[in-house]
Amino acid sequence: MTTTSPAPAKANGLRTGVQRFGTFLSGMIMPNIPALIAWGIITAFFIPKGWTPNAQLETLVGPIIHYLLPIVIAYTGGFLIYKMRGGIVAAIAVMGPIAGSDYLIAQVNANLPADNQLGQIHMFIGAMIMAPLAAYTMKWLDSLWDGKIKPGFEMLVNMFSAGIWGFVLVIIGFYPIAWLVNGLMNVLSAAVNWLVETNLLPLTSILIEPAKVFFLNNAINHGVLTPLGTQQAAESGKSILFLLEANPGPGVGLLLAFTFFGIGAARASAPGAAVIQFVGGIHEVYFPFALMKPVLIVALIAGGMTGVTTNMLFNTGLVAPAAPGSIIAVLGQTYRTDYLGVILSVILSAAVTFIISALILRASRKKDLAKEDAFAAAVAQTEANKGKSSDALSGLAAQAAAGAAPVATDRRIENVVFACDAGMGSSAMGASVLRNKFKKAGVEGVTVTNQAIANLDGTADLVITQQQLTDRARAQSPNSLHVSVDNFMNSPKYEEVVEMVRAQRDTDA
User: Fold this and answer.
1) Angle of the 95-109 helix axis to the 178-197 helix axis, nearest 10
2) CB contact set of 293 (below 8 Å; sequence gap of 6+)
3) Looking at residue 313, what is its pLDDT?
4) 465 — phi, psi (to 5°)?
5) How far apart are CA 128 and CA 177, in angstroms?
6) At 226, phi and psi to the nearest 5?
């Protein structure tokens, strides 16, 4: 049961692969955002340029970013693959690139003047490499002697095998991985510095804004921007890179354009979506609006470039990642002297996106209305020819707008899961909406939860995803029923799901 038609295999496979890679990176970073926020608060208050400089408490800044954050990221990544055993081995392994990087930098600094010394490189990328390497290899090694250990020796073998393999991985991390990550970070940092120096950083919006709409942003955000931004923030107290993807301005500008110039259901749901996106920080709610008319991505790019340009002109940045991308989170992480520039970047990016989106929507308004009117007229004419009204015909317009309707199933629906990339923002919102609809309809015995697509384990009776993510959800949980929606906040599919489950309960009674 699905509401989307399959895309071409090659294009869909590439997109799904990038989404899956980004989701894994997101799965390592997102649960540890609270640690990044805590570090950002400590930095904002206690460094010499902070709100309340404190030489003693400032000593917390270095160890947290250099040791704690890479270790918890590595543990989280290992846990995702091989539970606690994978997490522990990954946490051991990441110490290799941490220490190896420090050693390499010390060797270089020995030949440099004191005023030109290199700073530490923090092993976020090293953690994201070592975590899957450690967990997958530990899982494979355990499979070699699974069932072959004599009773009473299981704990001895498990403890020593993990410890010995952790030792091996530390050595591997110390030499080739540390060398690789140091080189990669130097290349990426040089590329970013070149973009800044040549005033070309706004061009990154050409990549970031379309990537967001197609759910491909996690690979860029968590794989590149967060590690580089954190490195910059550790050195200068702030980074503009945290604002490239998190700026809520372009999204709210698009939604405001639909509020004033959209038509039909899109116009009706846009105001609520704007509040959720801007204040709640759930950017996914505006993606369907852009996908309805892909030319609107041009407006998002223009708005994103405007925001980046403004932040460059004002030399503004955040002290830590803003997650979720809410205006509250953005302002909460803004460097203490940068509020004017950051606020202006949000306002101007929203204004530019709004103006361009409004022009596009106004230019196509007659055509869009004609399509709706023609379809409604066709339904009315068909009913007239039939000689009576028809519930099936009356529902055609809504179904055409939202895709094929869920079909009846003999499978009893008791466990409904909303799934998205990170399993937090948009899926949590959708789960809350459907839970309330079940409650109002008096339907009991249904559990509605949310989780990341990567964590689907096949136990869900019904999985609800956004259209761009359904193929991945189906591959992860093939025996579940699947429903696609274009908008987690307000979809006609929810009513159909509620009615289907209620019909099941009535039949059982």
Assistant:
1) 60
2) 360, 361, 364
3) 95
4) -135, 165
5) 11
6) -65, -50
User: Distance between CA 436 and CA 216 in Å, rounded?
Assistant: 30
Least confident stretch, 6-15, 30-39, 311-320, 499-508 = 6-15
List, for residues 56-100, the tens digit of each pLDDT value: 999 999 999 999 999 999 999 999 899 999 999 999 999 999 999
Q: Where are the beta strands (DSSP E) in 157-274?
A: none
- Tens of pLDDT, residue by residue over 20-31, are 777 788 788 888
3-state SS class at 417: strand
Chain position carrying tokens 């970070």: 185
119 within 8 A of 235, measured Cβ to Cβ: yes
Q: One-letter amino acid identity for 310?
A: T
What value, to the nearest 5°, has the Cα angle with vertex 128 and ends 122 and 133? 125
pTM over 0.85: no
Rg (CA), the chain: 26
Across all residues in the chain, what is the average pLDDT?
A: 84
- The C-alpha atoms of residue 289 and residue 343 are separated, in whole angstroms, by 24
465 DSSP assignment: E
- Three-state helix/strand/coil letters over 342-372: HHHHHHHHHHHHHHHHHHHHHHCHHHHHHHH
Annotated active-site positions, please?
A: 420
Amino acid at site 175: Y
Cβ contacts of residue 503 below 8 Å, gap of 6+?
408
- Distance (Å, whole) CA 221 – CA 228: 10
Which pLDDT score is estimated for 131? Answer: 95
Paired with 418 in beta bridges are 450, 464
